[in-house]
Amino acid sequence: MNLLSFRSGRLVVCIMLFIFYLYAWRPARKYITQNIVYPRLKAAQNSMGHRPYKIKRDGVSLRLTFPWRHYQKTIQYRPQGGFFFLLAMLTLLVIFAKPLWYLLLVGFHIAATLTTTGLMILSKQGWYPGFLIVDWIVSYLVPVFTLAMAILFIVKQKDRRQG
Fold this sequence. Notes:
It contains four helices and three strands, in the order αβββααα.
């Protein structure tokens, strides 16, 4: 197999991944937000005598505003596997990563989505630290881990070549 056909094969896989992301995964993320998390949060909010938090739908994400330490805190929830996930997957494809790295990345995003979704559903009764943990996972942990995947793989590859 020559180098040109190998690279064109990688390009085809990258294009297929991008198309899958646009037409399958993005709608799935929106479905999780709109049909699983939002109805449960809204139902819990309506069952309480007062409205402890406000929910606003924003495409694939939800914005929640709730009282926290004498002021209103706003967080954003969205299922994982967004732009950073796509970028990391494409990077791993381009730098010829082993399947274990893809499984690690996909598994991490699935675990993060399940964790944040579960915390959102548990936090609906007023346990607001759960909302803050979701905000930290979505805003910091997942993007840093996702972008670090490609860097870790490149460093590991360089170590193998030198060692």
